[in-house]
Specification:
Oligomer: single chain
Largest sheet: none
Mean pLDDT: 83
Low-confidence stretches: 1-28, 39-52
Helix content: 55-70%
Shape: elongated
Distance between the termini: 29 Å
Radius of gyration: 20 Å
Number of helices: 9
């Protein structure tokens, strides 16, 4: 009986640590996934949204211009990617998903569009689809640092898979330690280690 009580106490403490981490990580600002094809665009003006960022405003003129290109050139994958990016920046993730998917039908080996589609799935609360899309991106380029970084973020915060997140982030650090993605992965690993020593 005494052994069972000790084991039960240890299991309870371990469960409490996991639950505490999950709750704590949800209360803190989680690392945000990074679009692979993002060309450091200026944030749109507006009110506050997630984690103190500015509310996104859809650039309607840019949407109209790109839709004209798409209509006139049905084989133009790049215009579809740009249109998806505009919708993503406007936080219209379902619209972004539609255009990334169309672009990938035309250019199935575009690793950046594939990764951006995965990030869009994540923001549309579809973590499993995001991870599946990241797997596809990694089948195109197994060394794609932004895909691996985002895979770790979705594993950690979308699926609460700490071991999987650690694996993804360690791979980023191995492949590109001095890149922005490598630095972000190092910070994520350090945060995880300080929150969960041992």
């Amino acid at each position: 009986m005494k052994t069972e009580s000790v084991l039960l106490a240890i299991a309870g403490m371990f469960f409490g640590l996991i639950v505490g981490w999950v709750i704590g990580s949800q209360q803190q600002a989680a690392p945000q996934p990074v679009r692979a094809s993002a060309a450091q665009e200026e944030p749109a003006a507006g009110g506050a949204t997630r984690a103190g960022q500015q509310a996104a405003v859809l650039d309607e003129r840019r949407v109209q211009a790109l839709q004209t290109i798409v209509t006139n050139d049905p084989r133009n994958a790049e215009a579809r990617i740009q249109l998806a990016n505009v919708y993503f920046d406007g936080e219209r993730y379902q619209d972004a998903i539609k255009w990334y998917e169309e672009a990938l039908r035309l250019d199935p080996k575009n690793v950046n569009a594939s990764t951006d589609l995965g990030v869009s799935y994540y923001y549309a609360n579809q973590s499993d689809r995001a991870l599946k899309q990241f797997d596809h991106s990694l089948s195109i380029d197994p060394r794609h640092a932004k895909t691996l970084l985002n895979q770790g973020i979705v594993r950690a915060f979308g699926k609460q898979d700490l071991a999987g997140a650690t694996e993804s982030w360690q791979r980023v650090v191995e492949l590109a330690p001095d890149s922005p993605e490598g630095q972000a992965a190092k910070r994520a690993l350090d945060s995880m280690r300080s929150a969960h020593p041992g």
